[in-house]
Amino acid sequence: MATDEKPCPYCAEDIKAEAIKCRFCGEMLDNQGAGPQSFYQKSGISRGGKSSKEKKGGWRRWLVKLGILKEQGGLSWFSMVLIALVLLGAWVFWYSPTGRSNKLFDEGVELWDRGHYTEALRSFQKAVKIKPDFAKAWFGKGVSLGRLGRYEEALRAYRRAVEIKPDLAEAWNNKGVSLRRLGRDEEALRANRRAVEIKPD
User: Which residues pair with 16 in a beta bridge?
Assistant: First the structure.
């Protein structure tokens, strides 16, 4: 920019220093040295083209459009219902018997995978105490007992698992393993055949 030029305070194009009107945007100029910054500050328009009020209220405007906030402020009925449903869902997941037993089952599987069979057994026992018809937790209890060498108890757990879920091939198979360890080979063979019938592969 030459010394005899200045930026237009409205469009920021270079214009003559003594110009009264900008030849680019057509705005009348006051020659008191108002630069582009003072114009932007006065008008509230940022260099991006949106007013600072629009930028600040952008999220709020979208939340109002979505029905989450009221125009005057505060939560809308829609957002209150939505929050209530989320809280109810969290309660069902964490505090209902199904949610707690699933959490204990997952904890038991994780402990078993790390080789902590006694702790895993405790988690599976708590899960079946909360939800007695949880076949996979009974299976997990049986696997943990079997790993600890308690085959008679493991057998009872597998029996309970297949009573609840007769098509749980893994429980039939492990029931056969426990029977074999207890020297009951004919029963073990029948249990293993049942596992193969359910899951041939």
Answer: 5
Backbone phi, then psi, for 169, in 5-degree steps?
A: -60, -40
Q: Output the CA angle 45-1-24, nearest 5 degrees.
A: 50
Q: Which of 178, 190, 180 is nearest to 152 (CA)?
A: 178
- Angle of CA points 67, 69, 74, to nearest 5°: 145
127: nearest Cα among 109, 115, 113: 109
Are the C-beta atoms of residues 28 and 8 closer than 8 Å to each other? no
What's this model's pTM, rounded to 2 decimal places? 0.55
How far is CA 106 from each of CA 96, 160, 199, rounded to the nearest angstrom?
16, 19, 24
**With 0-12 CB in 10 A as exposed, 13-18 as middle and 19+ as buried, what is 183?**
exposed
In 3D space, the residue among 104, 102, 129, 131 whose CA is nearest the CA of residue 119 turns out to be: 104
- The pLDDT tens digits for 4-32 are 888 887 777 788 888 888 777 777 876 55
Specify the residue for token string 């994780």.
110
| Joined tokens for residue 47 | 């260099």
